[in-house]
Amino acid sequence: MHLKIYREMSKVRVRFAPSPTGPLHLGGVRTALYDYLFAKNQGGDFVLRIEDTDTARYVEGAEDYIMEALEWCGIIPDESPKHGGKFAPYRQSERREIYDKYLEQILKTDYAYIAFDTPEELDEIRKEFEQNGEVFAYDNITRNRLKNSLTLAKEEVQKLIDEKVPYVVRFKMPVDRILNLEDIIRGKFSVNTNTLDDKVLVKNDGMPTYHFANIIDDHEMEISHVIRGEEWLPSLGLHYLLYEAMGWERPEFAHLSLILKPEGKGKLSKRDGDKFGFPVFPLNFKDPETGNISKGYREEGYLPDAFINMVALLGWSPADDKEILTLDEMAKEFDLHKVHKAGARFSKEKAEWFNSEYLKSKSDEEVLALLKNVEGINLENSSDEKLLKVISLMKERATFVKDIYNDGKFFFEAPTYYDEKAVKKAWNEETATILNELSTQLETWDMKPEIIKQKIHDFAESKSLGMGKVMMPLRLSLVGELKGPDVPDILEILGKEESVARIKNAVHQIK
Ligand code: GLU
Question: Is-above-0.85 flag for pTM?
Answer without folding.
Answer: yes
